[in-house]
Structure formats: C-alpha cells, structure tokens
C-alpha cells in the first residue's frame, strides 16, 4: 500500500508557542521566594531607606507646613554633640556588657549539665522548659517584671522578708530599677544561650569526648581544648543576635519602667522613641537610628573577626 502522506513544504507555517516575556522568570523557585522578598522589601528595606532619607532632612511632625528641607549632616552633628544621646547610649552599652556575659555563663553551665546528663527524659523536659521564657513576648515580660518587683505585693520583696530584709522599692530606685531590668532579661534569654551552646556540644564527636575524659578528669581542660572549637560558631551567633536585641531593646523596658526613674533605664531605643514621638523630630530620630544601625554592624563585624575566626 502506497504512503499517500504528503510531507509539509519547507516553507509551510508551523504553529509556534507563545513567546514569554524575557522579564518574567520561568523558574518556580522565583515565585516561591517572591512573597518573602516582597515582604522584606516593604517591611524592612523601605523603612530603612525612608529613615536614611529623613536623617538628611529637617522633618518635624509638629510643623508639617514647614516642609522637609534638606539639611545635610546637621542632624548627625547635632546628635553626636548631644550629651543626652551619649548618656542613653552609655547606659545601653553598660547594660549589654553586664547582662550578656551573665547570660552566656549561665547558658553554658546549663548546656554542660544537660550535655552530661544520662537521662533522655530530663533533656526533653529541660528543653521544653527553656523554650517557655523565649516564647514570652517582650511586653509581657515587662508586665511580669512590674508585678515581681512591686514594692507592696511583689514576690521578690516577699522572699526578702523571709530573711528579715525590709521591702525595697525596686522600680523607684535608679540602681535597683536597672538591676531589675537586667534580671528579667537574663531570665528570658539565658535559655536561648543554653540551647545554642547545647547544639554546639552535640556536634562534638563522642569518641573524642570519651577519650578526653579517660585522659583527664578535669572538665575545664575538656571544655577548652576539645569542646571550645565547636562552641565558637554558636557563641558568635549569640553575641551578634543578643547585642542587636539589646541595642534596640524597647518593649520590655518601656512596659516595666517607662525608662525611669529619671533616666536610669532610658536606653537608646527609648531615647529615640522620645525624640521621634514626644518631641516630634523625625529627622533627628532617624539620624540616631542610622547611627545605631552602624554601631550594630560594627559590633557584628568585630565578633566575626575576633571570635568566629578561632573556630575556622
């Protein structure tokens, strides 16, 4: 039987697929990442650029009719010459230098205890218990602190009364108010340090750890010579994240002490909030926020350079 199919002519038109625009990506990964990138741009990048723009302009909410004239670096110069700004920044750095080492030390102690325990159920229960303070929001932590350190019915004064110590006015005394904020922050974020360091200890080879324990019974030598390299990456993450959190700490302190008494707990974030929404000087507050961001970046780079470098 003869094949009667006629081959198409060389010049015949074939159906073509519709062309896609070169600006529309074909990869499905793009469409999965696009919502997160868009949210990051709207929530994070746009406010940052707006703050950077406002920092170079005179922008006062109480005098909107005056507009936002360009003033260059005047806001930065005024900020750097403001003693109140340096006072708030000094209190913040003092809070960081006092609180963060305590959190790391207590977290390391808890991580070592959980790492050495031979009871699996105790590890699980401890990890669940450690998550609870971290899951508590900052504002709630501040409200809990107001109740715990209340002069009349606070738990702390009740416990001190059992030892014959008269009640202390924790939130009205400048030093005690600062200490009370430290205690609440240590309570909330020591579990975070413990979990991160416990994850680092879990990376240590069991054979090497058992051999080290047979060679020397001193846990300090095992910690320094064997476990320390595995702890440094987690320690670097703790330093970066907690330093950034403390430099922008606002909710817990504001709900607990309102920055008082006086300026005893007025950290840099509370000071910026006062400039922006009580004095209505958005330009000055934006310049202070940009300087705080620069300080956070510098600290992060120093941590990576001098702490993380020892782990590699």
UniProtKB/TrEMBL annotation:
Domain ABC transmembrane type-1: 89-303
Listed SUPFAM superfamilies: MetI-like (SSF161098)
Keyword Cell membrane applies: yes
BP-aspect Gene Ontology terms: transmembrane transport
Source organism, top-level taxon: Bacteria
Keyword field contains GTP-binding: no
InterPro entries associated with the record: MetI-like, MetI-like_sf
Recorded topology in the membrane: Multi-pass membrane protein
Native organism taxonomy: Bacteria, Pseudomonadati, Pseudomonadota, Betaproteobacteria, Burkholderiales
Family: Belongs to the binding-protein-dependent transport system permease family.
Transmembrane segments: 29-53, 88-112, 124-149, 186-205, 226-244, 285-304
Single GO cellular component term: plasma membrane
Subcellular location: Cell membrane
Region Disordered, annotated ranges: 1-20
Organism of derivation: Paraburkholderia phenazinium
The protein's name: Carbohydrate ABC transporter membrane protein 1, CUT1 family
Keyword field: Cell membrane, Membrane, Transmembrane, Transmembrane helix, Transport
């Amino acid at each position: 039987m003869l094949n009667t199919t006629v081959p198409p002519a060389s010049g015949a038109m074939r159906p073509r697929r519709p062309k896609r625009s070169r600006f529309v990506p074909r990869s499905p990964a793009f469409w999965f990442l696009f919502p997160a990138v868009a949210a990051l741009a709207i929530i994070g990048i746009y406010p940052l650029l707006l703050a950077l723009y406002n920092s170079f302009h005179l922008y006062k909410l109480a005098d909107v009719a005056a507009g936002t004239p360009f003033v260059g670096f005047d806001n930065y110069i005024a900020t750097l010459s403001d003693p109140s700004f340096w006072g708030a920044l000094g209190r913040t750095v003092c809070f960081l230098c006092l609180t963060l080492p305590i959190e790391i030390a207590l977290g390391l102690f808890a991580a070592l205890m959980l790492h050495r325990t031979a009871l699996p159920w105790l590890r699980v229960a401890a990890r669940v218990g450690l998550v609870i303070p971290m899951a508590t929001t900052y504002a709630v932590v501040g409200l809990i602190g107001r109740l715990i350190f209340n002069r009349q019915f606070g738990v702390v004064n009740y416990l001190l009364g059992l030892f014959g110590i008269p009640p202390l006015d924790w939130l009205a005394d400048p030093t005690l108010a600062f200490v009370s904020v430290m205690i609440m922050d240590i309570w909330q974020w020591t579990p975070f340090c413990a979990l991160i360091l416990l994850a680092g200890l879990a990376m240590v080879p069991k054979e090497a750890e058992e051999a080290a324990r047979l060679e020397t019974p001193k846990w300090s030598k095992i910690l320094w010579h064997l476990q320390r390299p595995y702890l440094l990456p987690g320690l670097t993450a703790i330093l970066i994240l907690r330093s950034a959190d403390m430099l922008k700490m606002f909710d817990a302190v504001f709900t607990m002490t309102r920055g008082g008494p006086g300026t005893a707990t007025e950290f840099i974030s509370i000071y910026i909030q006062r400039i922006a929404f009580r004095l209505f000087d958005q330009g000055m507050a934006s310049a202070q926020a940009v300087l705080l961001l620069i300080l956070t970046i510098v600290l992060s780079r120093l941590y990576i350079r001098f702490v993380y470098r020892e782990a590699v």
